[in-house]
Design a protein that fits this description.
By secondary structure, this protein is α+β, with helices and mostly antiparallel strands. It folds into two domains: 209 residues, no CATH class; 114 residues, no CATH class. The chain is built from eleven helices and seven strands. It has a five-stranded antiparallel sheet.
């Protein structure tokens, strides 16, 4: 196997729960830190989607047919601007997430690797393929968020796996490439092992979701920071081990006292936040199953929901720490109506 053939791909091997990861990008081979399916799923949904959303909006504007001389006469410069904008964003993603950036690059590259039939429609279709490739991470994160929300609501990992994960048609329209490689990727020594090779976002994270779901772990929503987490024990756990304060203390360490203080004050804003969060999630979920053009003002796009959720989660953390007033927190909660 020539390494040039692996350009823009991710390769993994599995040893128990540990996942060894390798990436090829721009003819550069890199061994990434070991991970787990749990880490891969939870880390990708915590990616900042705001920059991706902005990039997609820019690309949508650049790809607009209004920028062309006329339909049927799209200037090549317009296509170049779309492609360059996409690749610039890929480089930004690579700085924070090598796997996602590598697979996103490959999606854009595949969008460009089509036969030019000499018609103007080739340029239009190329721009549309690039636009779709750039929106794929947003769609993926949207679907994963929806599935994890279901996991928390159901509470039973086996039921979630059988009733939600295995029935998720939006994720299971992909296949996986696996290959036996008889040499060590690092030192070239003879070795027989099973490596999985991925060249697109959907197949990689669907594979990780399946492994994660099969581990039969419960998923909770941290009542302090607002992020998903997997409890380390089977005991009822409300708070995670993420660092929550500037002095390095975790949610689990500081939340009980902070929450007790708020309960003594009979503070109802946190309950209101939970109610509005669930309501806005249902608005997003309802709209996600509708065809384009069928959504109403009551429905939310994933971008609208994610922007609100990120802002509200950050405001909630500040409010719990006493760094944000009631009125300011209430305004954030009620921003979407």
């Amino acid at each position: 196997m020539e390494r040039e053939q692996m350009r823009g791909k991710v390769c993994i091997s599995i040893n128990g729960d540990v996942i060894h990861r390798y990436a090829w990008f721009n003819e550069r081979f890199e061994r990434l830190p070991d991970s787990t399916a749990e880490k891969e799923i939870l880390s990708v949904i915590e990616n900042d989607t705001e920059s991706l959303e902005r990039a997609c909006d820019v690309i949508d504007d650049l790809a607009s047919l209004d920028n062309g001389l006329e339909f049927g006469s799209i200037p090549p410069q317009q296509v170049n601007k779309v492609v360059n904008a996409a690749l610039d964003n890929v480089n930004e993603v690579l700085k924070v997430d090598t796997v996602l950036g590598c697979l996103l690059y490959n999606s854009v590259a595949k969008a460009l690797n089509e036969f030019d039939d000499g018609t103007a429609m080739f340029f239009v279709e190329t721009m549309n393929r690039v636009r779709n490739a750039m929106r794929e991470p947003l769609m993926l994160i949207s679907n994963l968020n929806r599935l994890l929300h279901m996991a928390v609501e159901i509470g039973d990992p086996q039921r979630w796996f059988e009733e939600c994960v295995l029935c998720e048609e939006m994720l299971f329209n992909v296949c996986y490439t696996s290959q036996f490689i008889n040499y060590d990727l690092i030192d070239g020594s003879t070795k027989l092992d099973l490596y999985y090779i991925f060249d697109d976002i959907a197949s990689y994270y669907t594979f990780m979701l399946l492994r994660f779901a099969q581990e039969n772990k419960r998923i909770n929503w941290c009542k302090c920071c607002g992020y998903y987490f997997v409890p380390k024990t089977k005991r009822r756990t409300l708070y995670c081990d993420r660092v929550f304060t500037e002095d390095g203390k975790t949610c689990k360490q500081v939340a009980p006292k902070l929450m007790q203080k708020l309960r003594r004050k009979k503070d109802e804003l946190l309950d209101e936040y939970d109610r509005v969060r669930n309501k806005n999630y249902k608005r997003f979920e309802r709209g996600s199953w509708k065809l384009d053009g069928q959504q109403t003002e009551k429905d939310l796009s994933y971008e609208e929901y994610a922007d609100w959720a990120d802002e509200a989660r950050a405001a909630r953390a500040l409010y719990i720490r006493g760094e944000l007033g009631k009125d300011e927190f209430r305004k954030v909660i009620e921003r979407l109506g």
